[in-house]
Amino acid sequence: MMDYEIQAVPLTMSLWRRRVEQFLEANQLRLDEVDYYAVVTHPDNDEILAGGGLQGDIVKCIAVGEQLRDEHISNRLISHLISEASQRGHQSVKVFTKPQNRQIFESFGFRLVGEAPLAILMENGQGIERYVELLKNCQLSTVNSQLPTGVIVMNANPFTRGHLYLIEEAARQVEHLFVIPVKEDKSLFPYVERKAMIEAAIKLIESKSPSLSGEGRGGASITLCDGSDYAISAATFPTYFLKRLDDAADTQMLLDLDIFKRHLAPALGATIRFVGSEPDDALTCHYNELMREMLPEVREIERMQENGEVVSASKVRKALENGDFQRAAALVPPTTIPYLLAHLATDALQQELATTPKPGLIDQNDNGAHSDMDYRLMQRSIIALRPYFVKLAVLGFQKELPTVENLKKIGLEAENAMLGATKGVNTHKGALFALGLALVATAHLEKNDKLSLKSLQETIIRLAAEFPDTLGTHGSKVVSEHRVKGALAMAREGYEQLFTDWLPLLQSLENNAFAYHKTLLRIMATLDDTNVYHRKGEAAAQQMKADATALLRDFSEKSLDELNQRYNAQGISPGGSADMLALTIFVRSIAP
User: Fold this and answer.
1) What is the pTM of this model?
2) Which residues pair with 223 in a beta bridge?
3) Separation of CA 284 from chain center
4) What share of the chain is helix, strand, coil (3-state, %, to 5)?
5) 400-437: pLDDT as tens digits
6) How far apart are CA 248 and CA 337, in angstroms?
7) Nearest-5° angle of CA 144, CA 139, CA 233?
8) Which of 11, 270, 394, 452 is the most exposed place for a label (fewest CB within 10 A)?
9) Which of 134, 104, 132 is nearest to 120 (CA)?
10) Which residues does residue 300 pair with via DSSP β-bridges, in sequence order?
C-alpha cells in the first residue's frame, strides 16, 4: 500500500481551482464555497486522487477517485479535515453528505442532526444538544399554559412593518410566541443587528399592547430566542453533491424542516409554525407548501400590503441601494430607523473607498501615497466601525440630544476598535468624527420628525459646539501654524461648504459615472485639507487646489489617472477630502 500525502492547495490560484473543479466533476460533484481545500495527489504524475474542503466548521466537497477507494484514504482525509477545523478553533465539525455515507462518518463519531432524501447533516460535537438546551431554557421562563405555543423563524434583513404585523397577528392566536432570527451572516444587515431590531420591535409591541406582554389572555407573551447554525439557508447549504441545482432547493428545505421538527419545535413545546404569505417568490412559496406537508400545524398570515404592494425587506434594501432613505424609512417601524442610518454611514465609507481612481488615495487599483495602508486594511477598518455607527444612531434616536460625554465615549470605543482592526494605523479617525456627528443629528431629527437639510446643519452645529478645542494633534498644529479651518471648526460651522457647494454638485451629477470623482475634485479644490498640510506643507496644499480646479474644468479619465500617478509618486494624500466625500455621500442618501 502506497503512503499517500495529504496537502493543502490554494484555490485562489486559477490553475489549482480548475484542477479541483475537474476532479470533482469527474466524481459527479461541484466545487462549493470553501476556505480550505486539501488533496491527495499521485506521487508520479501529480494527478488528484482525492480531495476535501472546509468552510468554517463544515466539511465539504469530499471525493475519492476509483484508484483509492479501497485504500481507506477517505478516513485519513476526514481525519485531516477534522484536525484542521480543530486547529482553527472549531469545537465540533458538521458535514453535509449523501445518506449512503452515513456509516463512514458515524465511524468518526458523527451523529445525525437532520435528514432529507438526498442529503443528511451530521456533526461530531454537542452543538445541537447545546442549542436545544438553550431553547428549553427559553421555554422554562414562559407562562405555564395549556394553550398553544407558536414559533416564527425570520431573517428580518432588515426588520420591516411587515415583520411587525406578522408578529402581532401571530401573538393574538397563541399563549406564547417564540421568534427565532436566522443566524446566517450573509445578509446586508449582520445577525447582531437583525436580532437587535427584532428585540426593539418586540418591546415596542409590548409597550403598546399590555395584552401582548403575558399579563392576560388577550394575546401572547413574546420571547426572542438566539439564532443558531441549524436554520439552513440557500446561501450556506452546499449543493456540490446534488446532480441538479433544482434538487438543492428541495433538499435544503426538507432538511431545514426536519431539523426544526426533530429538535427546535419540541425544545420549545411549540405546536404552531407561523409564516407570512408569499405572493411573489416561487421558492419561498414552495417552502411554505413543504412546511404544511411536514409540520403538524402551519398558519399562514396574509402579508401586510400598502397601496396594493407587499411591504417587504427587499423593497427596503432596494430603496437603500438607490440612496432613498425616506422610502426605506416609510417601510419600517421607528425602532429599525437607527440601523438603516448606521448602514448608510457605513456604506458611505465603502462607496468612498471603492471610488477608483482617486489621486493619492487608496482605491481598488493602488495604495495611493500610502505605504502603511491598502484596500483590505481600509475594509477591515470600515467593518470595525459599523457597530459603533449603530451605537451612535441609537444614542441619537431620542427626544433629547445626547451629551458630549456620551458621544466621546462611543467615539473613543470606535477609534480603539478601528486601531485594533488596523494594528494601530489611523484609517478613518476624521471620517468617524464627521459621520458620527451627522449620524447622531440625523437620528435625533428622525425621532422627532424634523429632518431637513437646514435642521440637519443646525443640529450638527449644536452638537459640535459642545466639543472642546483639540490640542496636540496633527490637525490642531496645522490650524495653528497655517491659520486654516480644522475638522472641529468645520463642524461648528455645520459643514457650510458641503450644504452650499459639494452636495448640490453631487445631486446635479445623478447617473454620471464620475459623480464621486468630480465631487471629490470639487472638495479638493475648495477644502483646506489639513492632511496634505501636515504631510507635504502649504505649497503642496495650494497646488492640490489648483490641480483639482483645472481637472474639474477640463475633466477626462486619462487626466484623472495621470494626477493619481503623480500624487502617488509625490506622496500627496488628500485624506481630509476623502472624509468629506464620504460625509457628502451620506448626507445625499438621507436628504429629504
Assistant:
1) 0.90
2) 178
3) 22
4) 55, 10, 35
5) 999 999 999 999 999 999 999 999 999 999 999 999 99
6) 36
7) 140
8) 452
9) 104
10) 275
